[in-house]
Amino acid sequence: MASISFDAVTVDFPVYNSSARSLKKRLFQVATGGQLSADDKGRVVVRSLEGLTFDIVKGERVALLGHNGAGKSSLLRLLSGVYFPSTGVAKVDGTIGSLIDISLGIDHEATGRDNVYLRGALLGLSKATIEEKMDEIIDFSELGDFVDMPLRTYSSGMHLRLAFAVSTIIRPEILLMDEWLSVGDEGFKHKAEERLTSLVDATDILIIATHSKDMLLRVCTRAIWLEHGRIKMDADAKTVADAYFGA
Amino acid sequence: MFSFISGGVQDLVASTSRMPLVGALGWQDVRQRYRRSALGPFWLTLSMGVMIASIGIVFGQIFNSPIHEFFPYLSVGLILWMFMLNTISEGCAGFISSDAIIKQLPIPLPVHVYRLVWRNIIILAHNLIIFPLVLIIVQKPIGWIALMSIPGFVLLLINMLWVALLLSTICARYRDIPQIVASVMQVVFYLTPIMWLPSMIPNKSGSLIVGLNPFYHLIEIVRAPLMGANATHLNWMVTIGIAVVGWLLTLSVYGRYRRRIAYWL
Known about the structure:
The complex is a heterodimer.
Chain A: E1 3-15, H1 20-24, E2 35-38, E3 44-56, E4 61-65, H2 72-80, E5 87-93, E6 96-98, H3 112-122, H4 127-141, H5 156-167, E7 174-178, H6 186-202, E8 205-209, H7 213-219, E9 222-227, E10 230-236, H8 237-245
Parallel strand pairs in A: 4-8, 4-9, 6-7, 7-8
Antiparallel strand pairs in A: 1-3, 1-5, 2-3, 9-10
Helix pairs in contact in A: 3-4, 3-5, 4-5
Chain B: H1 2-16, H2 19-34, H3 42-63, H4 67-91, H5 99-102, H6 110-128, H7 130-138, H8 149-173, H9 177-191, H10 203-211, H11 214-226, H12 233-257, H13 261-264
Helix pairs in contact in B: 1-12, 2-6, 3-4, 3-6, 4-6, 4-7, 4-8, 4-9, 6-8, 8-11, 8-12, 11-12
């Protein structure tokens, strides 16, 4: 069963390429981003998340709130398994799917069909699965004959529709998103909304970074408000939304 | 130490289940480079062919060596050298150039190294066409012994894999290393018997330059059988030794730092 358990998780970024001297002047100043400090060897370190402790169980829809640089993206990367905590324990049980950057890995010179295979392989789908879903993807993205044309001939709308159609065939237990995806013109938007909702409904846990109060109240059951890499508030969606956006 | 190695091994094993991804990305890299060009990757074959022909003619004359010996020797050496050179220099950028994927998807990191090695194998396969052509032109027969170059190549590949993984890891952290590697490789090219035969230099200094050069042994386990002779025991011992030591070193370094790599990019 899908579950997430964080215990005092901290993420420190070592900064190797910036001038340590000039940054040292700003040591311990609280910036909008993480906190700058130096480790015991004198290297400059950006602390992007600090002391995160929370549990998320099956069925929860969690929104991540916070200003730019509050640590939302770092937290999503921790959850997806891309980052490992510098200290603390981050336990994530369940298969993870990500709808962050759905255009990742797309090749503009390759045809739409090739890109479906490529994108599918990146998402960990087998060739057989992709072949099975191919017609559905082509149909859904409304590309028609364009699917055998190189991607550079696509309009940006077609491009997004294809990326969206491939990326949403996954059925993970834990779904990570950065803002609610909304693609295409009015007609397509409706269809996409339906598909996304059915994907979200099928997952055990949703974690979504957002700035939208409407979406938060509509979809989420719980919200975590991050500020300077720490949890400022962790409660049900309504309470946090009122505090964050102002009642 | 042991836990690092086992962590590294874990990643290597996990990566083998993503072989379809390795295949797709590797092919895409080659196609992307040559898309919309009429000859495609065969441009490499062509330029390699021209290079072999010109070096062969000039140096064959200078060294006064028989054409049916020197040309096949030179072409195999140069083709293998290009494979090693590209694998090693692209190995430096193994993780750096895949940073977008690494920071977004939890794909085991050795996948990115397998990808670059696979891409270079594809390119090597294109270049390899030159060798039979050269044999036909100089009318040199080839014997069964040539099959021994296959295990030789496998061993070369095992060695290239650890070099690429190790360099990918180190270069993600220390961005000066690629430049150092590039200069070293340039020197190594002249120190390695590719354009010249080991028998051409005086015995004492020769055995030192050649014997201590790992690249010589790596090339020789593939080239010697293709020239109709078995690679020496020394060649095999050295390359197997490098593989064992190299993998142990790589696994402990990679295993130690694999969880930090995403932060370095």
